Amino acid sequence: MTASYLAAAFGPEASITLVESDRVGTIGVGEATFSTVRHFFEYLGLEEQDWMPQCAASYKLAIRFQDWRAPGHHFYHPFERPQVVQGFSLLDWWLRGEGVPGAFDESCFLSWSICEAKRSPRQLDGSLFVSNLDGPLGRSTLAEQRDQFPYAYHFDADLLARFLCGYSTARGVRHIVDDVTEVGQDTRGWITHVRTSEHGHLTGDLFVDCTGFNGLLINRTLGEPFQSFADVLPNNRAVALRVPRDPEIRDVAPYTTATAMPAGWIWTIPLDQRDGTGYVYSDQFCSPDEAERTLREFATPGRDDLPANHLTMRIGRTERPWVKNCVAIGLASAFVEPLESTGIFFIQHAIEELVKHFPAREPDPSVVTGYNRRVAHVVDGVKEFLVMHYRAATRDDTPYWKEAKARPAPEALIERINRGARTLFDESDIYPHYHGFESYSWNSMLLGLGGGPAAPRPAVSMMNGDRAHTAFTDLRAEARRTVEALPGCGEYLDRLGGRL
């Protein structure tokens, strides 16, 4: 991703060499994304039909949280801002409860109906289901910049890496498959070169460390410390499976599912031709063998032949991802458990910030400080948002879920959660720096998890509710029309891939 973006940004003005070992396996858990990922593909000049069919990609309108509140209960966290009526969102009007049927997500979001019906967010002619966001397929319009884009993607990370390799090398990136055996430094500690087994010394002005949890340059060579989040986010292991799906069954769900389990949660990511699934857990409460057994029983009963990939996760962030002339991106920089699909988001944000702060030659210390501050704000904000998931979830039927309520949490977050139990958040109530999640996301999670307020703001209770009632009625009617008009998600993917 970094090489492709830099090649698109600078063209022949920058000489880019990517060194990749064929002996280091990929992790492959980052298959679900944020809606902002469309900006990455747009920057590269790619339409959906250019890359999605080659990467087993599908659509994601929301995350479905299953059993987090109690077994059998589910809710959606969508990419959709709720309507505002008389200065207050439909979520507040829903809390007023006067004749509004259904749960908060069903009543306040159009995405709920599309997800439940497993519809595509695009019609067969390529037009988007949200009329004010219509535009050429994959292109943003002024309306899209103002409004929350309604979907993200699922994709096979290995296939996307292969696709981007071809994209970047076609634009001048030198791709070397080799092993790094030594990192050279000058008297100031700046990196001068990397030595490879077969290609000798490779020099450069700026080195981007994408070596994953290993942190070969940023941590091992430059000694930058890693700040662990284990005290508040103890899930440190995962086991993953690639689950084949009958190609004749095109009932593809346009959402990621996160299902609460006794010692963590299981992700289900429906791709175009298979499912990606994995159990994220804490080894304080579950052994790897037990986790694999639980995952197989959940996702693939009777398919013990499918290989399992066991992962140890480093949860936290490198204190300064840019040190001297080295910038860490991806797992070498930061990672939190993939509960809100933030792995690709962290990478994309870091790349965009790198381009904004890119040095002419030697990095300016003040520019580097600004980059590090922005990256830290994003990661720390996501950390708080994820901790809230566990603190606010009312499920408490196992030792794991009981401890989630008693575990230490940032003081500012505790204050936010307490306030959110009394009244819905606005933008001034949530984590104050950009981290990808708006107040509607915080409110959706609190209401879905059972930790939100039981009543609306007093002002809403005092207002005439006729306009809100009309908004709810119109939303239900629009949902019916939309579901009837849209094709199934699998049907549209067949059209996109030329199979229809």
Task: Describe what is shown at a glance.
The protein has 500 residues and is an alpha+beta fold. Helices cover 36% and strands 19% of the residues.
Keyword list:
alpha+beta; 500 residues; 3-stranded antiparallel sheet; 22 strands; globular
Q: Give the strand order, joined by hyphens, for the main sheet.
A: 4-3-15-16-17-14-18
Distance between the termini: 30 Å
Sheet having the most strands:
7 strands, mixed
Number of strands: 22
How much of the polypeptide forms β-strand, as a percent range?
A: 15-25%
Overall shape = globular
Radius of gyration, taken over Cα atoms and rounded to an integer in Å: 23 Å
Q: What's the helix count?
A: 18
Helical content stands at 25-40%
What is the average of the pLDDT values?
A: 93
Structural class: alpha+beta
Uncertain spans: 132-146
Report on this model:
The protein is α+β, with helices and mostly antiparallel strands. It contains 18 helices and 22 strands. The strands form 7 sheets. The protein has a 7-stranded mixed beta sheet with strand order 4-3-15-16-17-14-18. A 3-stranded antiparallel beta sheet has the order 9-10-11, with no helix packed on it. Helix 1 (2-10) runs parallel beside helix 8, helix 6 runs parallel beside helix 17 (466-485) and helix 12 runs parallel beside helix 15 (439-449). It starts with a helix and ends with a helix.
